[in-house]
Amino acid sequence: MAFNHLPAAMHDALGPLSVTPVTHSVSMAKNHRPGRPPESGDTRPSPAMILDRLATGAGRAARITHTEHLPPRSGTHAIWPDRIRPEVISAIEKAGIDHPWAHQAAAAEHALDGESVVIATGTASGKSLAYLAPVLSTLLEGSEAPNGRGATALYLAPTKALAADQRRSVKSLAAPLGNAVRPAVYDGDTPVEEREWVRQYANYVLTNPDMLHRGILPSHPRWSSFLRALRFVVIDECHTYRGVFGSHVAQVLRRLRRLCARYGADPVFLLASATAAAPSVAAGRLTGLPVTEVSDDASPRGELVFALWEPPLTDLHGEKGAPVRRTATAETADLLTDLTVQGVRSVAFVRSRRGAELISVIAKERLAEVDRSLPKRVAAYRGGYLPEERRALERALHSGELLGLAATTALELGIDVSGLDAVVICGYPGTRASLWQQAGRAGRSGQGSLAVLVARDDPLDTYLVHHPEALFRQPVESTVLDPDNPYVLAPHLCAAAAELPLTEPDIALFGPAVPELLPQLEAAKLLRRRASGWHWTRRERAADLTDIRGGGGRPVQIVEEGTGRLLGTVDAAAAHTAVHEGAVHLHQGRTHLVRKLDLEDSVALVEQADPPYSTVARDTTAISVLETDTEIPWGQGRLCYGSVQVTNQVVSFLRRRLMTGEVMGETKLDLPPRTLRTRAVWWTVTEDQLDAARINPEILGGALHAAEHASIGLLPLFATCDRWDIGGVSIPLHPDTLLPTVFVYDGHPGGAGFAERAFHTARTWLTATREAIASCECEAGCPSCIQSPKCGNGNEPLHKRGAVRLLTELLKGAPPGGPPES
Question: 715 and 593 in one domain?
Answer without folding.
Answer: no
